[in-house]
Amino acid sequence: MVKFITAAPVFRMTGKLTEYQMDQLEAFIGSGPKVFRLLYSITRDGCTATEFHRKCDNQGPTVTVLYNPHGSVYGGYAGVSWQSSVGFHTEDKTAFIFQLMNSGKRAVNIFRPKDASKAIYCNSNDSSNFGYPDFKAFSNTVPLNNDGTFSLNGSISLGHFYHNNNVSNKDINNGSMVVTEMEVYAVFADYPRKSTDTHRTWRKTPALTDEYISKLKEELASITPPKGSGITDFQLLLVGPVGAGKSSFINTAMSPFADRIMHKAAVGTSSQSVTRKYITYPVRKSGGSCLNLRLCDTPGIGDHSGLDALNINFLLDGHVPSSFEFSCSRHISAKTPGFVHRPSLAEEAHCVAIVLDSSTIRDIPAVTMTLLNDLKNLALEKGIPLAIIMTKIDKLHEEIADNLADVFKRPEVKTAVDQVSEAFGIPPNHVFPVKNYHSEMETEIAVHGLALLALRKMLFIASDALEERTSANEERQEATADVTESDTA
Fold first, then answer.
1. DSSP character at residue 46
2. I need a surface site. Which of 114, 169, 429, 447 has the fewest CB within 10 A?
């Protein structure tokens, strides 16, 4: 018997959708690799509902993508075929509306149906129509404008049959349905579209979307110190060279919970550390309540900072009072005003994060590297877990800043992570690349996501270490009680 093997279809990609954007849509759709075949383009085929249906009906799953003059890219995915009809809603539990770019910047969002039975609306006079009236591209015929654009007569109005994730409609399409292009792609499952995988994912995480950011925030807000530890807040100590971005990371990590860019910790550029004091910052949600953690800022390690091995040892053990100002001319001691003579476990450091500028890793002075390694060894001796936060990853390659959500596909970032992991003897999954807010005026999903992933890891390893320490203390107390009871008997 002869067995026939059907080869994967080979399609020439001629649309505007980039590989990065196809990667993102592939992640949204899920269930394995996909091939995208261009079915319809308004600049090529004309902007008419008749031509849309002639090209796109009965084609199975499709992706509709709109591109506007502001550099925004958005659209919708239909898991069922488009049909010509008088007009009816079709159930589609896999459908979603999405955003990929906003005003030229990456803005990744996915909007799922609230009512899957109304997810798709088929009408012979309409083109792609999701939810009706949540998102419709156009109806009937739309002429070409003199400037080469199309003023589509559709609309976007999320919140009816699709969730809006608290994203305003104008933040998706800039408040206008004028587009430079609209494309519809057929989506074929189970076929990898790339013959070579030049940007293979080296750390698997869910897509950095509004939906996932909300889940991360909820998860972080629910994490509390282990029962029996006597601790209400995790103390997360940040240390690193001058200019590495410790204070900026604190502001960045606070921002997702405040729904705006925070400026609590002082930041700036100087040959000496802008931070002079040991300051602990609570992370406050927009509603006013705080998470069970404090981000502890320290002066940058370098000449004239005053943060040496002795002072670091006192920091780890919880002897240093909040707002203590370090000086290279004096060390903290038991005579220092406010010195905590008998710190409790709640006042000790529960996790240490070494913050490094990823673009200058090779240029860290030998004396600074020695001190950082001494810090690492000292923390490990005390049972305090470590993580490394690599800032300024956008400086490793010019494409990273424009595609920050793809950081775990960038070989430059992986190389930097591996170098740091080897240099400090810390597992790669304890090393987190981030980009701090610097010149941005508005928050960005990918910036939020990378900071929250790093913060979550710090809380996880701190919780694990505290749980182990609490358990050991309880065992010692039980053993002491047994000995006392035996002596009494």
1. -
2. 429
CA 146 to chain centre: 41
Task: Name the more confident of 311 and 11.
Answer: 311
3-state secondary structure 332-391: CCCCCCCCCCCCCHHHCCCEEEEEEEHHHHHHCCHHHHHHHHHHHHHHHHCCCCEEEEEE
Which three-class secondary structure state does DSSP give residue 25?
helix
What is the residue whose two structure tokens read 């394995």? Answer: 32
Token reading at 89: 């809603």
Give the angle subtended at the CA of 374 by the CAs of 368 and 375, to the nearest 5°.
90
Cis peptide before 33 (omega within 30 of 0): no
Question: Given this model, what pLDDT does residue 273 score?
Answer: 62
pLDDT digits (tens, 9 = 90+) for 396-444: 887 788 788 889 988 889 989 998 998 899 999 999 999 999 888 889 9
Assess contact for 447 and 394: CB atoms under 8 A.
no
Q: Which residue has the higher pLDDT, 484 or 428?
A: 428
Residue 138 reports pLDDT greater than 90 = yes
**Beta strands, E only, 213-276:** 234-239
Euclidean distance between CA atoms 320 and 473, whole angstroms: 24
Contacts of 30 (CB under 8 A, 6+ apart): none
One-letter-per-residue 3-state SS of 173-207: HCCCCEECEEEEEEEEECCCCCCCCCCCCCCCCCC
| Cα distance between residue 434 and residue 431, in whole Å | 10
Q: Residue 146: left if φ>0, alpha if ψ -120 to 50, beta else—which one?
A: alpha
pLDDT in tens, 342-384: 999 999 999 999 999 998 887 888 888 989 999 999 999 999 9
What residues does 465 pair with on adjacent strands? none
H-only helix segments in 62-200: 170-173
Residue 11's pLDDT is 33
Cα distance between residue 305 and residue 367, in whole Å: 13
